[in-house]
Every structure is written in structure tokens, then in C-alpha cells.
Amino acid sequence: EAKWTYNGPEGEHHWSKHYPFCGGVFQSPIDIQTDLLRFDPHLRPIELHNYNLSANEHLTLGNNGHSVQLSLPSRMFLSGLPHRYSAAQLHFHWGSANTPSGSEHLVNGKRFAAEMHIVHFNSDKYANLSMAVDKSDGLAVLGVLVEVGKFNPAFDQFLKFINGIKYRDQKVKVPGFNVRALLPLRLDEYYRYDGSLTTPPCYPSVLWTLFRSPIQISPKQFLSLASAVYSSHAQESNSVSLNANYRKPQLSDHRVVLVSFKE
Length: 263
Ligand SMILES: NS(=O)(=O)c1c(F)c(F)c(S(=O)(=O)CCO)c(N[C@H]2CCc3ccccc32)c1F
Ligand SMILES: [Zn+2]
Description:
It contains four helices and 16 strands. The chain has helices at about 15-20, 130, 155-160, 220-225, and strands spanning about 30, 40, 45-50, 60-65, 70, 75-80, 85-95, 105, 110, 115-120, 140-150, 170-175, 190-195, 205-210, 215, 260. Bound molecules: the ligand NS(=O)(=O)c1c(F)c(F)c(S(=O)(=O)CCO)c(N[C@H]2CCc3ccccc32)c1F and zinc ion. Zinc ion (ZN) binds near residues 91, 117 and 198.
């Protein structure tokens, strides 16, 4: 399949040449304008099931050249959404070591230091992520904005292994941990809209839930996320740092962004 990057000749303005959906409708991310939101009283708190993984459950932490990604067991799932959505993977988008500004979604034009996505697939209707990824009701992604501030012990549960995946296609096994601890306290306060994958193939298949409250990680944790990994393979002579792996905000095309809270 075609190569794509976040900058240069294979950067996001060229994605649609090989991935037509990237030039289509319902694209993500977007800039969430809080004065254009519609409060929806039917938006229920997100409920997480089996998110507290035991340490003898092993997860695969990998560098796929586009992001740092952690595989998740499909017995982890969400309820409180139109369907049951089972977990598949979580990954991150960040800026660069000296620019802590790399989130994909913006809130009133503000870009946060980084953003975590937990990708789930509709397990009521589809057997796995690959079957669901291009279906309009296929995916639900939880988005968590990340700020630099307090040390986050939950983040270190996988961050301490990041030097094992410095290069593209490297993978390491990490012990399971409580993934709930990576999320903000308030799972009842979020923005909701219909969007897409933010990477090629950009399928418009994602029910987005972006939590209102950011989580915090320490400056050292941010530095290790933003400067530890390369998008190039280990044997390549000149290594290319993986950073600024965020897509720019897309047109909202008058999409209504719902919100689960009033003030
Ligand atoms: N921001 S996001 O949540 O939209 C998003 C990503 F940002 C991202 F990087 C990936 S990926 O698989 O790590 C690399 C690109 O495929 C995926 N993975 C998706 C995209 C394509 C695909 C195909 C099969 C399984 C998973 C995915 C993704 F859904
Ligand atoms: Zn993502």
C-alpha cells in the first residue's frame, strides 16, 4: 500500500491521491467551537468494561512508523453508545520535543500538547477491527487531550518500555495495567460528532467521543513520548524522528457537534 507521511511530498495535502476518502466528507479532526455546540440530554456517561487489565495479561507496544500504539484485548468494551464497541488499540499524536503542541482536535483554536485515541470497533455487527474499519457504523474512538503538568503514573506503565520500540516495526510486550487510569475523571462530559480516521485511508467510519477534561503528563514524560521514537527502520542510515504526527483540522461542513454537559 502507498506510503504516507505528515509532511513533505507524501504529506496530508497529498493523501487523497492514493486514499480518496481523505478528500471526502465527515473528515477528522476538527476544531471544536464551544459556542456552536448543541447540548444533547440523551448523551449518557461512557461506561468502560474490563479496562482494568491484570499484569499477567501481555499487551503489544509497537512503533508502526506513524504512531506509538498499544494493542488492547477485545474483551475490553464500551457501553452507553448505540452499539457495544470492543477495544482494539490505543495510540498517540504529539508535537515535537520542544513544541508541546500536537493534539489533533482543537478546542476554540487551542491545540493541546498531545492526544490519546482508544480505537474500538462495533462488536455487535463486526467480527474485528479490519471488518469494521470501513463501515459507517464501524468504529468508536475515545479521544483524550493531553497537557504537560503533573507526573502520570498510569502513563509510565507503557512509557517506560518506549526505548524498546525506537524504530519502525519494533514491538515489545508490556504487562497489562488499568487503562481506565489513563482517562480523565469525568466520563460523562464529552463532545460527540460523526467523523473519520485521521490517517489514511480516512474512512468516515468513526463515532468520535472527545472528553472535555484533559489528562496531564510530566515534562519528562512528554519529552520521552515526543523524542524517543523514529519513523525509520533500525537499519536505515539516517534516522527520521517521528514527531508532529497530527492531521490539521478539517472543515466541519456544518456538522453538528453534540455536547453532553451544559456549563
Ligand atoms: N487517529 S485514528 O484513530 O484515526 C488512527 C490513527 F491515527 C492511526 F495511526 C492508526 S494506525 O493503524 O496506527 C496507522 C494508520 O493505519 C489507526 N488505525 C486504523 C486506521 C486504518 C486501520 C486499518 C485497520 C486497523 C486499524 C486502522 C487509526 F484509527
Ligand atoms: Zn489517532
